[in-house]
Amino acid sequence: MGAYGFFLHQKEETKFTDKPSLTISSKDLFWRFEVGEGNNIVGEIVSVSGMITDISDSSISLNNSVICWIEKNSFEKRLNKNDTISLRGRCLGFDKNQKKVQLDYIKILDS
User: Fold this and answer.
1) pTM for the complete prediction?
2) What is the pLDDT tens value at each position of the chain, 111 positions in all?
3) Secondary structure (H, E, C), the chain
4) C or N terminus of the chain, fewer CB within 10 Å?
């Protein structure tokens, strides 16, 4: 079990360093899921840019269309509403209740 746990941990760590399979705006990423063409992105690392429309201790929303789940205090730079940023994360799919695409394993690329 110890070796398996180590392997699993190593695999999770690579999510922060993997190159994105797609670079896209938050609006275009949302659109892909709206028209049913986003399922091939689920589980993939994507680079997304957009304007911060909401921010909390646990998430950042880009253009009210993509929600990025973050770890508390995980960013060196302070982020604010209306900042335009680029980030990388793993696409979790589309949340029909929130009507947003979800990402985790977030790394801020620039702001």
Assistant:
1) 0.81
2) 455 454 444 455 555 567 899 999 999 999 999 999 999 999 999 999 999 999 998 899 999 999 999 877 666 678 899 999 999 999 999 999 989 999 999 998 875
3) CHHHHHHHHHHHHHCCCCCCCEEEEHHHHHHHHHCCCCHHHCCCEEEEEEEEEEECCCEEEECCCEEEECCCCCCCCCCCCCCEEEEEEEEEEEECCCCEEEEEEEEEEEC
4) N
